[in-house]
Amino acid sequence: MSSREKILAAVKKNQPALEVMATYTQPEREEDLLQQYSTVLQAIGGTAVIVNTMAEVTHYLKEMWMGKGRIVSTVPGLQDLAEIAGETDPHQFENVELAIVPAHFGVAENGAVWVTEELLQQRVLPFITQNLAVILPKENLVATMHHAYDRIGNASYGFGTFIAGPSKTADIEQSLVLGAHGSKSMTVFLL
Amino acid sequence: MKKDHAQLSADFNANEPRVNWHDETLWWIRQKRDKAANTLPEWEELREAASAVKYHTLSNLSEYLQQFEANAHRNGITVHWAADAAEHNHIVCTILKEQGIKRIVKSKSMLTEECHLNPYLAENGIEVIDTDLGERIVQLADEPPSHIVLPCIHKKKEEIGELFHEHLGTAKGEADPQVLTAAARLHLRETFLTRRGALTGVNFAIAETGEFVVCTNEGNADMGAHLADVHIACMGIEKLIPLRQHLGIYLRLLTRSATGQPQTTYSSHFRSPRPGQQMHIVLVDNGRSTQLGREEFRNSLKCIRCGACMNTCPVYRRSGGHSYHTAIAGPIGAILAPNLDMKQYADLPFASTLCGSCSNVCPVKIDIHDQLYKWRQVLMKDGQGGAMKTASMKVMNFTLSSPGVYRTAGKAGRWFLRNVPFVVNNPLNPWYKQRDMPEAPQQSFGEWYKQNRKQ
Ligand code: SF4
C-alpha cells in the first residue's frame, strides 16, 4: 500500500462522525470605510494618500521618487515616470527602488490590498521592490475579510496576495523594524 | 539521560533577570492580543465558527484531502504523501536532488522542525538557509526555535549582535535592532537571488480550489518562492479547510491572536506555479491520523499555530520554549508531543498549572488545559508518570486549578495560600497581572518546581 492509501485509510478510520459544516455571517456595521482604511494603514506603518486624479498621483510620485533609482510600473499611463514591468526574469527586478501597481480592492479592517498575478505581471515585484506604491479606487473598499472573500468569489488566479503595509519584523527583542525582506514602505493612493 | 522539562526550566531560571524579561515580553504580547480581540465585537462568534469549521473538516478529512489533491493537481502542482517524518525528508531531498539543487532557502515551517529536515538535508549535502529573521538568528546560534511565532524570543539583542558580528560582519558591539535587521536584509537578499529551490510552510490549504495560503510579516516566503525554480510547500494534513471563504474567519483570528496585528503583512495565495516553475506540496501525516483517532485529543488538530497559548502560559513564560524539548513548545506542544512519543514526552503534560488561560485565548477553542489533564491520566495509567509527577500533580492540581482555593477570598483563604509550603509571595510577579486567573501565588518558578520535584 502506498503512503497515500495508508494515510487516507487511517484518516477515514479515525475521523469522527460527520459534522455539518458551520456557517458564519458577519454583522453589517455602518462605517466610513475610507476613514477606517486610512487610519489602519497608517497604524501598520503605511501611508494613505487621498487623491482625485491620476495627475495628482503622478505629481506626488515624481516629487518623491524621480531620480532616486529604478521605477517600475504595471499601471498604464505612467510612462514618463516609470518603465513597464513586462514579462522578464523575476531576478531582474532586484534593483527596483519603487514599484507602482494597481489593486483590486482594499480591506478597511486591516489596511490590506488584494492583488493578483495579472495586476503584478511578475509575482515577485511587490516583494522585491524597495518601496511599493498602490493605486486603489476609493469605491473599491470593503469592510472586512468576509466581504473580501465574497468579492473574490471563485475568481481564478495563479497567485494572489493581501498586502497590509510595509514588510516588518519584531524578531529582535520585539522592537518593530519596517523593511524586513519585502518593501520598506507602502503608499496607497486612494483615487 | 536527557533532561526533562523540570530540569530544563531550572537551567532557564538560573538567570532571574532574564526570566523576568522573558515573562514580561510575552505578557506584553498577550496584552496586545487582548486589545486586538476587543476591537471585534464578534470575536466569540468568530472563535466558535473557527472551531466548528475545523471540526467539520476533521470529520470529513479523508474526502477533503482527496478533493484538495485533485484540485492542486489540476492547478499544475505535484502532490506527495508522507506517512512520517523520514518519508517527508526523503521526498524533499529527492525533489531537490533530481533538480540538481544543492542550496535552498526556507521560510518558517514548524513541520520541517518537527521532522528535523535541516540536519537531514545537511547530511545529504544540501544547504538550508532559514530566511525568517528569528529563525535565521537561531540557526546561526545553532539552536532550535523557542517559540512557533517568535523563534528567538529568548535572545537578547546583544547576543544577536554578537552572532551577527561573527557571521555577517556587523560592527563589534552593535546591538541596535534597526541596524541588525538591515544587515540581515542585505545578507538574505543575496541569498534569495542565488537559490534555485525554496521551501515554505503552509498556513491553510483550501480543498475547494487546491490553493494554499502562507502568511508572513517579513515577505520571506514570497521572496524565496517567486525567485526559485522549484517551490516545495510542506504541510500537515490538518491544515486543510473546505472553502476559500473560510479564510475570512481564520485570517481575522490568526494574527490578532498571534501578535495583536489586524493581519500579517502578506497573506499569499499560491494556486499554480508561475510559468517555468515547479511547485510541489508534501502532505504529511506523522502521527496526525493517530491523534485524529484519540477522541479526547483530536481537537488539538484544529490548531492554527498562532502561539497565543504560549504567550499567556505562566509556565511557558517562566520556563522558556527550549524547556519543552520538542519542536512545538508551550501548552499546545505539550498535548501534541505525547501523541508522537509517550515516553519521551511524558513530562510535558505536567508542565502546566492547568489554569486554563490557554483555552481562554485559543482562537479555535481547543480545550487545551482539559487535554493536558487527560494526558496526565493516560500517562499515569500507562506507567509513564513517575513518582515525582504524582507529587507535583497533587500540589499543582490542588493549589492552582482548584476553583475552591481561588475563590476563598477571605482572610482564612489568604492565610492558607500564604502558608502552603512552597509558596513565596511576590506582588511583582506577573502572574498577579493575569486578570483571568485569581491570585496564583508563586515566586521563582524554578525554585518552586525544584522543590516540588523533591517531594
Ligand atoms: S492551540 Fe490555540 S492558542 Fe495555541 S497555538 Fe494553537 S491555535 Fe493558537
In short:
Chain A has six helices and twelve strands. Chain A has 191 residues and is of the alpha/beta class.
Overview of this protein structure:
The complex is a heterodimer of chains A (191) and B (455). Chain A has 191 residues and is α/β, with parallel strands linked by helices. Chain A has a single domain (32-190), classed as Rossmann fold (3-Layer(aba) Sandwich). Chain A contains 6 helices and 12 strands. The model of chain A has no long low-confidence stretch (mean pLDDT 95). With 455 residues, chain B is an alpha/beta fold. Chain B has 22 helices and 10 strands. In chain B, strand 5 and strand 6 form a beta hairpin. The longest helix of chain B is centred in the N-terminal third of the chain and has 23 residues, at 16-38. Chain B is globular, with a radius of gyration of 22 Å. The two termini of chain B are 21 Å apart. Chains A and B meet through helix 1, helix 6, strand 9 and strand 10 of A and helix 2, helix 3, helix 4, helix 8 and helix 10 of B. The structure holds iron/sulfur cluster (SF4). The site of iron/sulfur cluster has 14 residues of chain B, from helix 14.
Which word captures the global form of chain B?
globular
Q: How many domains of chain A, as an integer?
A: 1
The amount of beta strand of chain A, in percent, is: 25-35%
Bound molecules: iron/sulfur cluster
Roughly how many Å is the radius of gyration of chain A? Answer: 20 Å
Order of helices and strands of chain A: HHEHEEEEEHHEEHEEEE
| Head-to-tail CA distance between termini of chain A | 59 Å
Oligomer state equals heterodimer
Q: How much β-strand is present in the residues of chain B?
A: 5-15%
CATH architecture of the largest domain in chain B: 3-Layer(aba) Sandwich
Spell out the CATH superfamily of the largest domain in chain B: NagB/RpiA/CoA transferase-like
Regions with little confidence, pLDDT below 50 for 5+ residues of chain A: none
**CATH fold naming of chain A:** Rossmann fold
pLDDT averaged residue by residue of chain A = 95
